């Protein structure tokens, strides 16, 4: 197949990179046309990382499949789509993945969770409030506006609420690490308000009215009114627009001994980092761009233990094959279409799928993958289970091939050194360098093939 042949060829040429340090590699595939899904690539199958007896990966062979969410919940102010428990189970992590859709004036009721979480704003604007403990152990609160492209990190135990004060839907994609929760594999929310319900009810309903009245030092009828007035749960719809102060003028507040202290505004941005407004970490003309949020630019991710990466591929571009040695990946296709291939340690194909907007994939650590954009380009988000992920490319200056002598590589590929050196001699020192023009086969359908001309582009650090 097109991606497989390209991967093999790129591996052959990997160690011939320029002595300049490569940041990343993209490839331009001028005739790529991804195969549309058939019965074997539909979204109707279960989505899970399963293991079957095999000689690969410690006698276990991973299967990555795509599907719709396991569960969908509809509330007055929005909806929740959830992939739960064994849906995304890595050897060392159990993740709960969800998508929240707010309607206008939809309010996610104040709550905390037993899992560290990371979110990405797919659509719309809103306001997010977070109440967490400061280093002194006192609660501190912050409110900030969130918009498309924002990465937000909320540690477990922190109280948060979310409100759609914009016009139109407000969509959020989320992932939470449930490994250290109440029971691993299940996400538990503890809602501070809301109606009594079996699954999403407000936690205060678990206490006696008289006990709460004594704790608050109020009459029992007031407590009853607090508990019974709200008929909704999880995401309610406000009958009137909630007027919140401008987050740009708000500090983080905490109190001690009855004295309120207003802290500096930098705390507000600690939970938020925008991947759209900031300059990309990498840009390749005709190739694409990438931008990440990790513990270096969003410090709270160190506590959450996760990070996020946005990649935008131009039409028919290819991201160089890579793997992460310290992080599993949750890949969400935001827009466009293309093809994703995942290989096992014994050279077998684990996944070879046509993907489109809304597709979600789980790729375990150490497992290499390659992503090829279709004619409309490919934009995707990756959540990683490390706050400082370590990518390893299979080609380029940072590839491990670079540390292997040419003589060894020639023997490894069973080719003469002149074949490798011929390509090396054609290189030029250029910030954007095209070193390969080679025709490959490009599978247009299950029954026909076409020629593919690939153009590999490097970006070098100055």
Automatic annotation (TrEMBL):
InterPro entries: 11S_seedstore_pln, Cupin_1, RmlC-like_jellyroll, RmlC_Cupin_sf, Seed_Storage-Functional. Residues 1-19 form the signal peptide. Keywords: Disulfide bond, Seed storage protein, Signal, Storage protein. Residues 64-224, 273-421 form the Cupin type-1 domain. GO terms for molecular function: nutrient reservoir activity. Coiled coil: none annotated. Belongs to the 11S seed storage protein (globulins) family. This is Cupin type-1 domain-containing protein. It comes from Adiantum capillus-veneris (Maidenhair fern).
């Amino acid at each position: 197949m097109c991606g497989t042949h390209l991967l093999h060829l790129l591996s052959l040429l990997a160690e011939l990179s320029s002595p300049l340090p490569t940041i990343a590699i993209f490839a331009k595939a001028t005739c790529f046309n991804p195969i549309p899904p058939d019965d074997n690539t539909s979204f109707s199958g279960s989505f899970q990382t399963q293991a079957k007896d095999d000689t690969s990966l410690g006698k276990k062979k991973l299967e990555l499949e795509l599907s719709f969410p396991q569960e969908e919940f509809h509330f007055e102010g929005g909806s929740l789509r959830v992939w739960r428990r064994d849906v995304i189970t890595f050897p060392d992590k159990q993740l709960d993945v969800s998508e929240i859709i707010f309607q206008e004036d939809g309010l996610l009721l104040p709550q905390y969770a037993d899992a560290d979480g990371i979110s990405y704003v797919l659509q719309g604007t809103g306001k997010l409030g977070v109440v967490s403990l400061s280093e002194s152990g006192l609660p501190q609160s912050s409110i900030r506006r969130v918009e498309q492209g924002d990465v937000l990190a909320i540690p477990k135990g922190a109280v948060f609420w979310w409100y759609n004060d914009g016009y139109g839907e407000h969509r959020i994609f989320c992932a939470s690490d449930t490994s250290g929760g109440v029971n691993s594999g299940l996400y538990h929310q503890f809602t501070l308000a809301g109606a009594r319900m079996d699954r999403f009810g407000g936690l205060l309903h678990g206490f006696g009215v008289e006990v709460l009245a004594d704790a608050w030092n109020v009459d029992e009828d007031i407590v009853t009114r607090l508990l019974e007035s709200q008929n909704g749960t999880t995401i309610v719809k406000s009958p009137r627009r909630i007027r919140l102060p401008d987050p740009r003028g708000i500090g983080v507040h905490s109190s001690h001994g009855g004295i309120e202290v207003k802290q500096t505004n930098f705390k507000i941005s600690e939970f938020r980092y925008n991947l759209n407004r900031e300059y990309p970490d990498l840009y390749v003309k005709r190739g694409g761009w990438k931008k990440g949020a990790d513990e270096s630019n969003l410090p709270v991710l160190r506590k959450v233990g996760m990070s996020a990466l946005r990649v935008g591929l131009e039409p028919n571009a290819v991201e160089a094959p890579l793997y992460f040695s310290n992080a599993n990946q949750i890949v969400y296709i935001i827009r466009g279409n293309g093809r994703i291939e995942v290989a096992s340690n014994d050279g077998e194909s684990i996944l070879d799928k046509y993907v489109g907007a809304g597709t979600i994939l789980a790729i375990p650590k150490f497992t290499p993958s390659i992503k090829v954009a279709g004619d409309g380009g490919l934009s995707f988000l990756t959540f990683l289970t490390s706050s400082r992920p370590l990518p390893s490319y299979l080609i380029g200056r940072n590839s491990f091939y670079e540390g292997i002598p040419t003589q060894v590589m020639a023997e490894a590929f069973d080719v003469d050194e002149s074949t490798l050196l011929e390509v090396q001699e054609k290189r030029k020192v250029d910030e954007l360098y095209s070193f390969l023009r080679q025709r490959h086969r490009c599978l247009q359908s299950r029954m026909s093939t076409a020629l593919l001309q690939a153009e590999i582009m490097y970006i070098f650090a100055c």
